[in-house]
Prior knowledge:
Strand content: under 5%
Number of strands: 0
Number of helices: 10
Radius of gyration: 17 Å
Distance between the termini: 44 Å
Helix content: over 70%
Structural class: mainly alpha
Order of helices and strands: HHHHHHHHHH
Shape: globular
Number of domains: 1
Amino acid sequence: MDMKKVLLLVGPTLMIFIGLQVLGNVIATFILFYSWLLAVPLLGRGIQRERFKVTGKAVMLGVGSGLLFFLFIYGGLYWLNIYLLDIDQLRVLLLGWGFSGRGEIWLVLVLLVANPILEEVYWRGYIYEKLRMQGSSKYAILITATFYTLYHLLSVIPIFEGFYGIIAVVPVFIAGIFWGYIREKTGMITAAIFGHVLSDLGIIFVYWFLIR
């Protein structure tokens, strides 16, 4: 794998690292991260309109998988938050990150609109197609899911208690594998976007009803 592809794979993680760890600013993190996800496919002319086609199968797969991930995220943390989360410490952390007042509205908009679309365009769209041209579907699915999961460690580890931070990204990896699989089978990213929206809605529910 050449250095250009390595940079494309680790770029989003670098943006998160620079924003959160170096600059310590969530707004800067969002700007760096989503600018990368948007600019790279645009400059690389990698966004194909046919990948956004909406079919009954895509809606069914997307909504079905999204509901399962929603129930897993919200239901799991609803029952296990006493073991996995320090709610008081988490509230302090999120306040420090700016999630209060208008920040809450932006959090919802980012997670439900910008995040699922831009992440899927980048990973299951642009990056997947580049990898698929040079390897098998299994290779493309595994690599995209792995590097998609990587940067979630940077945002998840501060939230969960100890080793649970690493365990918490396992569902992210599973989702990446599944969305890559249905991307291969349908030839589109619409199912992954629908599923991603509902999964992120689970995160919003955790924040709104358990943490806020």
